[in-house]
Amino acid sequence: MKVIAIGNAVKPITPETRQQVMPKEVPATLKLYLDGKIEQFFFRQDKPGVVFIMNVDSVEHAKATIETPPLVTEGSYSTSLCRSGRSPRWAC
To answer: What is the pLDDT of residues 21-56, one digit of tens each?
Structure first.
């Protein structure tokens, strides 16, 4: 199942927080990518944040997975999830 996870900055990341958190955030996100849980990732262009296309068993699994990176556990980011799928066939 594909789930779209949208990460939104909840509070500004200070330079001190960035120095403390990012050395953990990057490897944590890379591990999710290498494990196949994050299939694609993008940086938001409209405001600070990210968009992940996830390959997971359920929305609950996506929620449990996406709440583990340091920026989320530290409280700088929140995420919203959206189950996605193929377009239904329209009746003619």
So the answer is: 999 999 999 999 999 999 999 999 999 999 999 999
**Strand ranges of the sheet holding 2-9, from the earlier edge strand across to the other edge:** 38-43, 49-55, 2-9, 77-84
Mapped onto helix, strand or coil, the DSSP state of residue 42 is: strand
Cα–Cα distance measured from residue 2 to residue 88, given in angstroms and rounded to the nearest whole number: 15
Q: What is the pTM of this model?
A: 0.84
Pick left, alpha or beta for residue 45 (phi over 0 → left; psi -120 to 50 → alpha; otherwise beta). alpha
Q: What does R_g of the chain's alpha carbons equal in angstroms?
A: 15
Residue matched to tokens 């709440």 = 67
Query: How many residues make up the chain in this entry?
Result: 92
- Confirm if 88 and 19 have CB atoms less than 8 A apart: no
DSSP H helical ranges for 1-92: 15-34, 59-66, 70-73
